[in-house]
From TrEMBL:
Lineage: Bacteria, Pseudomonadati, Pseudomonadota, Betaproteobacteria, Burkholderiales
Naturally occurring in which organism (per UniProt): Mycetohabitans rhizoxinica (strain DSM 19002 / CIP 109453 / HKI 454) (Paraburkholderia rhizoxinica)
The encoding gene: pcm
Gene Ontology molecular functions: protein-L-isoaspartate (D-aspartate) O-methyltransferase activity
EC code: 2.1.1.77
Annotated compartments: Cytoplasm
Designated name of the protein: Protein-L-isoaspartate O-methyltransferase
Amino acid sequence: MDAWLAAGAACMSAGRAKRFPLGLSDVMREPRGAPVLPGVAGSASASTATKPTLGGTRPREGVEQMRPFFDRMVPASPAAVPLSTQLALTSERVRQRMVERVRASGVADARVLAALAAIPRHQFVDPGLAAQAYEDAALPIGHQQTISKPSVVARMLELVAAGHALEKVLEIGTGCGYQAAVLSHLARDVYSVERVKPLYERAKTNLRPLRVPNIRLHYGDGRLGLPSAAPFDAIVIAAAGFDVPAALLEQLAIGGRLVAPVGSRSGNEQVLTLVERVSSAQWRESQLDRVFFVPLKSGVI
């Protein structure tokens, strides 16, 4: 029994002697490798294995087969990017060129030009017309209405601003909301009235991404103005009547300015007209440029 215990102790001592301290051969011994799974990247045999992966396809061949799928997800060239996206990426430069054309047309007010440069006009027109958004042209917005030419918008706003900061402005004819957006950079508060319900809703949709806090849209008869918010130090009418509605003249503050296209009874011409209120019972009128606008109508639809 004692001999057996002694032999066991000798074996244990020999084992400890081998483990503590470790011999050089133990330190240099290559560690046990992890089990290699077929087709798993990073394993010792993954880069050299010729065994097919699941489905009988090698990894490289699998990438080639998936490429058409990724081609559908990631456009291969700028030409594959939708036009609206291309314009969004380059619209600042395009807007600057538009502003230079407006400046060349005679608009000199730096604040008006800066406001034009700040608003992405292509977001206010139909996608099919986005390529024309920065041309100096009126474009259809549906319901027999149009978005006015940038040069005309700038001319009208330059006239009502007269080089001064505006406090409270009334716009008649919201349309798609573009002119209201430009006005928001020139006035503390902008009130805009639209009589066509779908356009009123569209303007709200167009303006929402811009998060403009100082525009208040109203659905109603523009010829009646907005008595609850009057008086206004500027009124801009974006449709042509045979005269300026009396309700709007009354809602113009003394010293305020109103600009509107006024048409002849024959319907052959329209003239951009500036009205200045000089007293409680007196207005001064100036006829300026020949223009063409959609008609100013009463009621709502």
